Amino acid sequence: MLEAMKGRFKIRTAMGYEIDRSALRITRPSLFTSATTYRPIGSEIRSMKISREQREAGVKNTKNSPFNVWLDKQVKDESGALDLEKLYEVARRYGSRNAKLPSTRARSA
């Protein structure tokens, strides 16, 4: 497998591409769990910087979206706090077969 990956990298390099981003998690059900993206050698590196204000506006604009209202009902306890066990149960139920809670030590901290 590693040799095949090295071979594909050499081919892409010969075709004029370089690694853009590596070890990207694929979150949809798929044969693969990670990926690498390439860009033409010497092309501009893409970056997206989100300011605190933009992030806060995004949270405000989506807070009451139908999806977030549904998700909150699934993963929050009576006081409104996030319940990680409920969150991982939703992840297991709706797509991530590998969703596992972190070790008990990390949760009790």
Summarize the structure.
The protein has 109 residues and is α+β, with helices and mostly antiparallel strands. It has five helices and two strands; from the N terminus they run H-E-E-H-H-H-H.
Task: Please tag this protein with its features.
two-stranded antiparallel ribbon; 2 strands; disordered C terminus; alpha+beta; 109 residues; 5 helices; single chain
Describe this structure in words.
The chain is an alpha+beta fold and 109 residues long. The chain has a two-stranded antiparallel ribbon.
User: How does the overall form come out from the CA principal axes?
Assistant: flat
- Please mark out the parts with pLDDT under 50 across 5 or more consecutive residues, or reply none: 104-109
Give the amount of beta strand, in percent.
5-15%
Q: Which structural category do the helix and sheet elements fall into?
A: alpha+beta
Question: What's the topology here?
Answer:
Blueprint: H1 2-14, E1 17-25, E2 34-40, H2 52-62, H3 66-75, H4 84-93, H5 104-108
